[in-house]
Structure formats: structure tokens, C-alpha cells
Amino acid sequence: MKETLEEMQQAAFQIIAHAGDARSHYVEAMRLARERDFEGAKSAMASGDKAYNQIHKVHVSFIQREATGELLPFSLLLAHAEDQMLSSETIKIMASEFLALCSELLPVSK
Fold first, then answer.
1. Which site from 79, 87, 98, 99 is most exposed, i.e. has the minimal number of CB atoms within 10 Å?
2. Active site residue: 18, 25, 56, 80, which one?
């Protein structure tokens, strides 16, 4: 069980790191959209999505293990990582909507 807890904590750190990376790209996408650089914004969104997909690879592996009956220990660190994952998902949705709004309302500067 100790190895599993350490494994979960390492995975939690991976999730936190990827969530921070994804969030930074999504915020950058909003900044670029505000500056009317829509191609740059789309590229930043794609980079954010790439980081966000890494979160799911790690997170889904634990869900699959628990779904098959493996009893995983509770980890406060993993709960924090899941919170970071969800906040990144919220920012992703907001960034996507912000880009759509900016592309409708702002003329392209380039």
C-alpha cells in the first residue's frame, strides 16, 4: 500500500504540473485573442489541450484501477491535483468562449 501511495503522489505531482502548463497556455490564448492574434491564440489553445490531455492519461489510469476493484489509498495531494485539473478545465472552456467572442467582435490586426 505504501508503494501505491507514493505512486499516487507522484501522479498527483504530474497532474498538478500539466494542469499549470495547460492553464498558462489557455490564459496566453486569451491574451493573444485580446490582441487580435487569433492564429497565435489557436496555437496556444492547442498547446494547452496537449498538456490537458496528459492530465487525463494519468487520472484515467487511477479511475480504471479503482473501477477494476483495486482499493487505492486516499491522498489529499491527489484531491488537490484533481482540483487543479478541474480549474484548468474551467479555464479551457472560458478561453474557448473568449476566443469565439473576440473573433466575432474584433477585426483581425494582421
1. 79
2. 80
